[in-house]
Amino acid sequence: MMAEQHIDDGIKRGRKSAPPRQCAVTRDTADRTELIRFACAPDGCVTPDLKEKLPGRGVWVGARRHLVEAAAAKGAFKRGFKANVVVPDGLADLVGDLLRRDAIQALSLAIKAGVVVTGFDSVSAMIAKGDADVLLQASDAADDGRQKLSAKHEAVAAAAGRAARTAGVLTIDELALATGRANVVHAGLSRSRATDVFVRAADRLARYATDAPIGRMAGLFDEID
Fold first, then answer.
1. Residue 132 dihedral angles phi and psi, to the nearest 5°
2. How far apart are CA 196 and CA 207, in angstroms?
3. First to last CA, the chain
4. Which of 56, 64, 200, 219 is most deeply packed, by most CB within 10 A?
């Protein structure tokens, strides 16, 4: 299909074939989609490897902000790499920024795939037709408009016998960056592979930013098959 399909297929193949990994902080074993890989750069600096492509030994940490902070503070990287590595200041912030960048990029790809509409009236019409798979609203938008579209989205989804998937992980400025349009507050995404790629990126960002527990995050997204 397009680049988006390739990305999504890669995620699915990785989920099926990759063995689980152990968090360096909790020592719990989990699917690697619930963890973040860190690599050691040639200069000995600990580096987030969200794409899991950097060479050498990797240290895995649960994809939660407090776990990354704990790994940095309690010597988990030194033990994991078995070396005197350098942990950069603000590592947890850096990871959060990278996850946010991934979500913005995934939304941009969904826009290029032609599956995104923006603007209150256009999104409302999309919802009414039953075409809105995901309702995306700016995290810093006014409550009134958000609540109206959310209620409509939930009602239409319930009538169709499916869950209403909603997200509010990006700000107005970040939505503008992704869409190339000013003052984007509301967006709707139709069902597509590109939408699912965005959902996974946004869900991972939300879990990290809110320190939500592993597993389904109530009120954000349903699990994707």
1. -85, 110
2. 16
3. 20
4. 64
What is the residue type of 59?
V
Give me the residue label for tokens 């152990």. Answer: 22
Place of tokens 């850096």: 94
Provide the residue-wise pLDDT of the chain in tens; the chain has 225 residues. Answer: 223 333 333 334 344 557 899 999 999 999 988 999 999 999 999 999 999 999 999 999 999 999 999 999 999 999 999 999 999 999 999 999 999 999 999 999 999 999 999 999 999 999 999 999 999 999 998 888 899 999 999 999 999 999 999 999 999 999 999 999 999 999 999 999 999 999 999 999 999 988 765 443 333 444 333
Q: What 8-state DSSP symbol labels residue 200? A: H
Please provide the DSSP assignment of 54-122 as one string.
--S-EEEEESSHHHHHHHHHTTHHHHHHTS--B--TTHHHHHHHHHHHHHHHHHHHHHHTT-EEESHHH
- Which of 156, 174, 178 lies closest to 166, judged by CA? 156
